[in-house]
Amino acid sequence: MQSVTDADPAKSDPDGPDFAALFGRLPSPYMILDRDLTYVNVNDAYCSVLERRREDLLGRYIFDAFPAQGESGARLQASFQRVLDTGLPDTLALIPYPIERPASRGGGYEMRYWSAAHVPLLDAEGRTRFIVQNTVDVTELQNLKTLAYGPGGEPAPGEKDLFMRAREVEATNVLLMRETQDLRGLFMQAPGFMALLAGPDLRFALVNTAYQQLIGHRPVIGRTVSESLPEVVDQGFVQLLHGVMTRREPYIGEGAAVRLQRTADGPLEERFIDFIYQPILSQGGEVSGVFVQGSDVTDRVHAERQQKLLVDELNHRVKNTLATVQAIAQQTMRSTPDFAAFRSAFESRLMALASTHDLLTATSWRGAALRDVLMAELGAFGPDHYRLEGGDVDLTPTEALALGLIVHELATNAAKYGALSGEHGCVNVSWSVAEDVLRLVWLERDGPQVAPPTRRGFGSRLIERSLGGQLAGEARLDFAATGLTCRITLPLAMPS
Prior knowledge:
Layout: H1 19-25, E1 30-34, E2 39-42, H2 44-50, H3 54-57, H4 62-65, H5 70-86, E3 90-100, E4 109-122, E5 128-137, H6 139-149, H7 157-189, E6 193-198, E7 203-207, H8 209-214, H9 225-228, H10 237-247, E8 251-261, E9 268-281, E10 287-296, H11 298-335, H12 339-362, E11 368-369, H13 370-378, E12 386-389, E13 394-395, H14 397-416, E14 426-434, E15 437-445, H15 458-465, E16 474-480, E17 483-491
Parallel strand pairs: 12-14
Antiparallel strand pairs: 1-2, 1-5, 3-4, 4-5, 6-7, 6-10, 8-9, 9-10, 11-13, 14-15, 15-17, 16-17
């Protein structure tokens, strides 16, 4: 087992002290434990006062080497745990602790009284890696008090003041530690993300669970923002932090886009956050760091975008509905010999058109079949003007709504300019599913000659963009002279 003193850089200096030798010769007892409370090193004074050999201690769990039941063992264990949890020193002013004596002294246990200080040695991430204990045997002092005043008697005034102050310090430290742990627990469990950046180089001193979730649980404590989150440097966030420190004024961001690598070796993922950078001022007015607080509002931003798309679509749909009704009326008039036949066919097609709106409303709340989505739009034009080829496919509400919007736009465009605007035109829709990916082709034939549009209208933009983002799909339009072709690719989720 390697001694922690072997790693000290000062030892490599031929003109500097040998810290391993210095540790061994210190007149006061010292020992070093790892995070499992296993002995890593002890000095000669420690071995002497406890009458143990060094080789008998190294590698052993401290409470196996020195077992203790009751309050004393619990107090010592709690002190070690506070150092591990907080990375701060802890002191036990006076603790009675029985020590097993060697057989040469008759064996058995002897009650001893100790005053112990526990100091953490931190790793690069600011966590306690080792605990150094300096302990002082004050048994003789305690025995003198007992001889002079009897068990529980009053100590000398100076001694009383010393021990009372030590007891008060220990009690205060325990109380403060509990309060600190309570506050730390609240900090870690806060629903919004929080982080504390310390010093002019902006090193992470503290982050809560929500912040860790946002950045993919990367180790950041003790590292700068640039080192921990290199992808945000070119996005301007580090510059904003330095600006907050320079101006000593908070910065508030709303719905800000940030690209983060949330998995190891994974792609950058776009998130949206509301946040505030608050400068931390010392009593002297100097900026000592920045407090970061905020919340991940990605779902809200996506919902707002979807709502805007739906509102725009509603406005657009009102205009398109009138054009579709006009196209259906003209097509029906060309294919019916008398008014009575025209009325019957026209009314049935209007009812089919109305069912489109009903289906899209329904698919906002439950799943729908792909064939039903297609029929809700194409059924109004009569069976001679469309062909559907493909198996049964169930869509989630989000998928059904997106495809419903696209099919409506395609059908409206076909009724106004394409295959459904003429007497002999036809729309062929074919689809297949492989490896949970839907591939659908909308193909228009025997309609008027098609010319590519001179500009992109709302309908074209809606078709090409509706499957992006969360759905991770794609729709491509090809305005060939023989008729429009739309190719759709959509990864499918399981309907709820």
